[in-house]
Structure formats: structure tokens, C-alpha cells
Amino acid sequence: MSEFRYQAVEENGARVAGVIEADDRQSALRLLGQRGLFPSNLEIKSANGAVASAAPKTKTDQPADFSFANRIKRKDITALTREISALLGAAIPIPQALDSLGEEEENPALKTVVQKIADSVRKGTAFSAALEEHPKLFGKLYSSMVRVGEEGGVLPKVMADLADLLEHEDEVRGEVVSAVAYPVFVLVFGICTVTVLLTVVLPRLFTMLQDMLPVLPLPTLILLKVSHGLHHYWPWLLIALAAAIFGGRGYLRTPRGAENWDKIKLCIPLIGPVVRAAALGRFARTLGTLVKSGVSLLPALKIVENTIGNRILAQQVASVAEETRGGDSLATPLRKLGIFPRTMIQMIDVGEQTGKLDVMLLKVAEIEERQMRARTKILISLLAPALILVVGALVGFMVIAILLPIFKMSRAIH
Question: CATH: 1.20.81.30, 2.60.260.20, 3.30.360.10, 1.10.3720.10. Which one for 73-168?
């Protein structure tokens, strides 16, 4: 039998420390789990009373392979969250749960991250603090909810709520991507077809037509100029296009550029209502999930402000948080802003009065997301024919520009 010195968290969130006797580390972890303790640190006492680390060595020092094939995707984080939720729900301590997930993870990059988090937790770092060391993978919403679960002693429940939230967002995002896939394919295929015709096929044909006809029709001349420019200056055009793309991306990464782009998205016809509905749905669902997990309203609004996805609407949420700080209810400042429809404000007001704000916020989220899906379907149903019409018009113009000189030559022959 060996003595292990431990630091752990009870089910009610209280931190405890002590010594336990067990045959080995796994037995000690199992005994602590049976007592309802979640160890954050477990060390074996040596014969002279000193403490030696009993933590297994993890390969956290090996470089992660962050190639495209092994990059960490959002769905990987969602799956990891669900697995952590299941393991914690089975009363498995956090370090042991993370060790198991790290060993089974197939993505080398995510495996390294999980091992680093497990190592930090084993050394006494709180789980939420260990997640904050990887802000690109686990955002403020994620770490804040985990911290609430730790402080309230309901971490398994909070992780389950967080997994539900991430899975729902992935589902909505997948539906939007699937709807946009066909119009994007039509656009890309049309651009490629027109480019090949203008740079490869038409220059040879126009050379022959110029030799046969002294004066070409206007549509043919226009197409000839465009084809000549693409054929001879395509390297410079590619450089200019790349510079415009990189310059635009650089501008959008600046605070002012990102804010202007968010403002433009809200003002675009047909697209603006979809963006607004998606942002408001995310606001209501995230806030409802936080309130359901035990986060008080003001901190929850501060978290939602950074996760709503639109800086213009985030500024309005910040003003809501300031008014809520003064003692106002949530419905009152939202009614002043005029963002939500009147029925949504009434539902939120009823939720506050009945103590079921989280339930009403999640219902509001369902309504907004349903409207977002419906508007997206309408937009896509209009976008696909519009793109086909544009591509057809370009190809039709090219056909007319080619046939006009041929008809002119045939009349000259007759």
C-alpha cells in the first residue's frame, strides 16, 4: 500500500485536500471517485515524507502536426465536448477522462492539446483555466461556462449543455453550407467556362475572323478586346486580383474594417434579414444556455457580446448590459433597441416574471433560427436561378458575338 496526497473538488464545488492509501495510482483515483471527489492533483508520498509526482508522463512536448489534414476543426471540438460530458457524467475524474480521450484521439494536433490540458489540470490548474490557455479552440463562452460548472459543482451538466449548444450551431451551419453549395458551384463553373473560352478558344477564332472581315460587329469587337486583354495580361490581372483579395482581407481584419463590413451585411437586401435573424438567434440561444447553466444575467450578457458574431449588434448588446447593470430588466432595454419583434420581447418579459428566462430565451432562439432557415431557403431559391441567368447571359453574349461575323460573311458570299 502507498500513500497518495491529493487535492480535489467535491460535488458541491468545494476544494479539499488529504491523504489516501491505495495500491497504485489507478486504485487511488477509483477510491476518490467513489467518495464523490474529482482530483485535480494526485502525488505519491515517498518513504522520507517527500512528495513525488505520480502523474504519468504525457508527450506534450512533441510538436503537433498542424498540417491541413490534421488541423483541428470545429466539429472535433464539439465531439470532444460531448465525450468529456459523458465521462464526467460517469463520475470519472477530469485528468483521467482527459488522459483517456488523449490516448484515443486520432488527430495528432488535438491529441497534443488534450494532453496539455490534462497535464495542466493534474498540476492543480482549474479545468477552465487550462482551457483558457488555448483561446483559439476554446473561446470565452466555452471557458466561462466550464468555470460556472466548476464553481457550482455541476460541471457534468454544464458540459452537456455546452455540447448541446455546439451541436446545434454545427447543425445550423451545416444546413446553410449545404444550401449555398449549389449556387457556388454554378458560379464557379460559369466563371471557369467563360475564362477558358476567352483565353484559349476565342483568340484563335478571332484571328481568323479578322483576316476574313475588315470590319467586325460591335459585340464581336467588345469580346475581342476582353479576350485580348485576358490573353496577354493575365499575369498582371492575377497579381491585381491577389493584391485586392489580400488587401481586402487585411482591411476586414482591422476593427474599423470589420465594423464597416458588419454594417454593410445588415443593409444588403435579402441578405441583411438573414444575418440579423442568425445573430439574434445566436444571442438568444447562447444567453439562454448561460442562464440555464447558472450564470447571472450581467456576466452572461458580457459573454454573449463577444460571441454574437456581428459588431454592430454586439454594441447594442453592450448597451443592454449597461442598462441591466442599473437594475433594469432584460426586456426593457431590448424593447428600446427595437431589435427583436414585439412578440419576442413579450416572451422574454414573461420569462423574467415567471423565473423561466432561460426557457423563454431558448424558445425565442428557436423562432429566430426557424425564420433564418426560411429566409435562407428563399434567398438560395432566388440566388441559384439568378446565377444561372447571369452565366447564361454571358455565354449567350459570347455566342452572339461569334455568330454575327459568320452571318455577315455568309451574306457577303450570297
Answer: 1.20.81.30
Q: How far apart are CA 301 and CA 279, in angstroms?
A: 14
| 289 contact partners, CB below 8 Å, separation of at least 6 | 145, 161, 162, 164, 165, 358, 362
* Averaged pLDDT for residues 157-163: 84
Rounded to the nearest 5 percent, the helix, strand and coil shares of the chain are 75, 5, 20
pLDDT at 65 over 50: no
- What residue type is assigned to position 414 of the chain? H
Average pLDDT over residues 233-253: 89
pTM of the model: 0.61
Instruction: Check whether 122 has a pLDDT greater than 80.
Output: yes
The full set of domain ranges for the chain reads 2-53, 73-168, 193-414
Strands 51-53 and 2-10, sheet pairing: unpaired
Q: Do domains 73-168 and 193-414 have the same CATH topology?
A: yes
Whether domain 193-414 has CATH 1.20.81.30: yes
User: 9-47, pLDDT tens digit by residue?
Assistant: 665 556 678 888 887 776 777 777 777 776 656 677 654
The answer to whether 159 touches 84, Cβ cutoff 8 Å, is yes
Q: What is the largest CA-CA distance in the chain?
A: 114
Q: Is the pLDDT of residue 239 over 90?
A: yes
Q: What are phi and psi of 17, to 5 degrees?
A: -145, 155
